[in-house]
Amino acid sequence: MCSYITERIAVCGSAKGAAGWMAVDTATIYFDHPYHAPLDHSLNIDFVNAAEGAPTRVAVELSAASARALVEKILAALEQGERAHGEV
Amino acid sequence: MYEGMLAESVTIRGHEGDEIAAYYARPLGPGPFPGVVVIHHMPGWDEWTREVARKFAQHGYAAISPHLYSRLGAGSPDDVAARARAQGGVADDQVVGDVAGAMAFLRAQPYANGKVGAIGFCSGGRHAYLAACRLPALDAAVDCWGGQVVVDDPAQLSEKRPVAPLDLTAALGCPLLGIFGNEDQNPTPEQVDRTEGALKRHGKTYEFHRYDGAGHGFFAVDRPAYRPEQTTDAWGKVFDFYGRYLGKG
After folding, report:
1. Strand pairing of A57-62 and B140-144?
2. Closest residue by Cα to residue B124 from B81, B154, B83, B156
3. Where are the domains positioned within chain A?
4. Chain A interface residues facing chain B, Cβ-Cβ under 8 Å?
5. What spatial distance separates the first Cα and last Cα of chain B, rounded to whole Å?
6. Per-residue exposure over B146-161, b if at least 16 CB sit within 10 Å of its own CB, e if not
């Protein structure tokens, strides 16, 4: 389906794209047709710098299963890292 | 027999006279050629959309695909589509205006036969249904699995999409062909039933072809949803329909 359902969140950090590193302030997340991945639907995340007009983005298109696994691994890495370094 | 086509990007006038990009493919030769407006899906003005335009040119139609996200700046079609999504898509009024502009472009060509149809896929299928209800000059429309023609949850309506296309069915002004997969979840078979019920109730000329073993977007050769047998049959239905209502290309 082509849904219009889109999650949006403010983020703080950097991403590296075709033009090199850039600051990013927004991520949009949606589960819909991918542009490139050979899947019917994918979990897509676009990291952009909305404050600069979002001329470029860093994008990923992941299968639903790998996106869920990624969420778990992100949380696991954060927990382990925060234990090792102290909460930041 | 000589065969040839020209496929190129052009600039046309869209909604409110805005200059927008379009991809235009047409057979070479004097014509007369019927015209088709190819309405892209939400992922944007992509390679597959262009392939569809060239397919119509191969079959003798002048086909144009307006870039519905043209106003969102430069960049690759996928990046521009991401911007469109971040803004909640584009407004129905603007899409209808862009389709009208593409129709005018087709009819202005010296080799045009004067007949123009529209075809859309996924969100573009919904747009094709909408255009058929709002543009009386359209001669035939093809809705390929357009989702949200039927809107069950009023929260899905918005300033950009204020009306469910189904509610405009009384105004549908041209023959409609619908292509659907019976395993689709958007639209579901039950929603397709309701669309068909509205078309019958209003006495509209339509034909629906509903395929078992196929889900959403089953024409897409680069996705698991691809169903070669159903796709081949459905393309045959599209060309038969256009042959009857637009003329042979």
Report:
1. unpaired
2. B81
3. 7-62
4. 1-4, 6, 8, 26, 28, 30, 32-36, 38-40, 46, 48, 50, 53-57, 59
5. 15
6. bbbbbbeeeeeeeeeb
Q: Which residue has the tokens 């298109």?
A: A61
Cβ count within 10 A of residue B130 = 28
Of all residues in chain B, the percent with pLDDT exceeding 70 is: 100
Which two tokens mark B180?
């659907």
Q: Where are the alpha helices (DSSP H) in A1-88?
A: 64-85
- How, if at all, do strands B206-211 and B176-181 pair? parallel
Into how many domains does chain B fold?
1
- Under an 8 A CB cutoff, do A1 and B186 touch? yes
Residue at A77: amino acid letter:
A
Span B63-86, pLDDT tens digits: 999 999 999 998 889 999 999 998
Task: List C-alpha distances in Å: A52 to A49, B62, B71, B83.
Answer: 6, 40, 17, 13
**Sequence-ordered list of residues with C-beta below 8 angstroms from that of B189, at least 6 positions apart, any chain:** B180, B182, B210
Q: How much is the ipTM here?
A: 0.77
